[in-house]
Amino acid sequence: MLSIEGIHVSIQSAAVLRGLSMTIPDRTMVGLVGRNGAGKTTLMRSLMGHLRPSQGRMLFNGCDLSTLASHERARLGIGYMQEDRGLVPELTVEENILLPVWASRTLSASERLAFVYGILPEIKEMRHRRALLLSGGQQKLVALGRALAVGTRLLLLDEPFEGVAPALSKRLAEVILKLKASDLSIFISQSDLNHSRRIVDLEYTIERGANIGSVQP
């Protein structure tokens, strides 16, 4: 599904990723664990085209992602849940969910909304509210819904449990576990994998932008 081969990424001349390599097989859930500043978010942003590697390759089903613009990656079926949620404050919940669907041009808005609301019925109730009026936890749910709307093949979840209440963490874990039973591949990053270690198929550890090990729990 996704092969990351020796990528190097710098931000303002500071090296963040240093020859990182990993594989996310089809229909698996892969965890990436590392302390804050290890390079987890930089990797996610590189996969989505927000940062460009200076070396290495990122292949999605054989397609070199570096040749594609950020919005084109949505058309491949990649959904991205940002650590900071990244919602547009003035747009409604439903409009935020549909943003990547509009970019894909190949997905049915009504079908994707039905799918998202079926998995996350609680956000359907707030679909007409503007994102800026939501709590941080509610925004996390909407960010997950937006990733689900377009992530028909691969979900990138960056620190989904960070900064949320225990009840919401439990709810997010339930949803992610349910998704694991689908045809999706899931790549989830965390400072620790306490929330998901029991459900990941493969776990990578990152330190200072490089792999330091992988294990099958």
UniProtKB/TrEMBL annotation:
Cell inner membrane found in the keyword field: yes
Stretches assigned to the ABC transporter domain: 2-215
GO biological process: L-amino acid transport
Record's keyword annotation contains NADP: no
Top-rank lineage group of the source organism: Bacteria
UniProt keyword list: Amino-acid transport, ATP-binding, Cell inner membrane, Cell membrane, Membrane, Nucleotide-binding, Transport
GO molecular function ontology, one term from the record: ATP hydrolysis activity
SUPFAM superfamilies: P-loop containing nucleoside triphosphate hydrolases
Entry-linked Gene3D superfamilies: P-loop containing nucleotide triphosphate hydrolases
Family assignment from sequence similarity: Belongs to the ABC transporter superfamily.
Protein name: Branched-chain amino acid transport system ATP-binding protein
Source organism: Cupriavidus alkaliphilus
